[in-house]
Write a structure and sequence with these properties.
Elements lengths: L1 E6 L3 H12 L4 E6 L11 H17 L4 E4 L2 H14 L4 E3 L4 H7 L4 E5 L2 H4 L2 H10 L4 E3 L6 H6 L5 H13 L4 E4 L8 H8 L4 E3 L2 H14 L1
Parallel strand pairs: 1-2, 1-3, 3-4, 5-6, 5-7, 7-8
The protein binds D-glutamic acid.
């Protein structure tokens, strides 16, 4: 079984590694759009122009499923992409629903790109699942570039995370797959104060269900 995993950059590798570690007998074709990363400050129209030919390549390479390991693509384009491509697209999006169910302080944090935060799909998730929850959205606009270029400034991350912890958040959602690479640092900063959520386990379960139906 061959599956595609797609992201603008190194977020895809994090997700592909997690899939490889838990599903046997699977061949992963990983595609990262290194030419256009970061996506998180671009418009949906521009991103669609980058993503469409890459998804077509994955289909042409014989992939039977594509894991959309990019919150920015899912929240802006998943409906268009599902109309264009007939194979299953297993898509990662911000974990607003489980975070809203978990919080006791009724304050959660969503760390995401500007394009994700501005998307109608994210807005819908908030209205549908977290209407009575206070959602903090710290400025993470430079995080995916820092992570992509391996120039992470720990102080910048610590400052933003400490601010939201001071504001009473008890759940932090990593809603950009690039941030999975700084999960350990964020867990350390949040220890004893907040849970950190990211979607790899949930997406693997979803992928297993989809593969079982093929
Ligand atoms: N890793 C992507 C996401 O999950 C996008 C990062 C970027 O290209 O800005 O949103």
């Amino acid at each position: 079984m061959k599956i595609g995993v797609f992201d603008s950059g190194v977020g895809g590798l994090s997700v592909a590694n997690a899939i490889k570690a838990s599903i046997d007998d699977i061949e992963i074709v990983l595609r990262e759009d290194k030419e256009h990363v970061p996506y998180g400050t671009r418009s949906p129209q521009e991103i669609l122009g980058f993503v469409t030919p890459i998804f077509q390549e994955l289909v042409d390479a014989g992939c039977q499923v594509i894991v959309v390991a990019c919150n920015t693509v899912t929240t802006t384009l998943i409906e268009d992409l599902r109309k264009q491509f007939s194979i299953p697209l297993v898509a990662i999006e911000p974990m607003v629903k489980p975070a809203a169910a978990l919080t006791k302080s009724k304050t959660i944090v969503v760390c995401a790109t500007p394009t994700t935060l501005a998307s109608p799909r994210y807005d819908w998730l908030k209205q549908e699942y977290a209407e009575s929850i206070n959602i903090l959205e710290p400025d993470c606009s430079d995080w995916s570039s820092m992570i992509e270029d391996d120039t992470v400034d720990q102080q910048t991350i610590a400052t933003r995370i400490n601010e939201v912890l001071t504001d009473g958040a008890d759940v932090i959602v990593l809603a950009c797959t690039h941030y999975h690479w700084i999960e350990d640092e964020i867990v350390e900063l949040a220890r004893g104060k907040a849970e950190v959520m990211q979607p790899e386990t949930a997406i693997i379960e979803q992928l297993k269900r989809v593969l079982a139906r093929l």
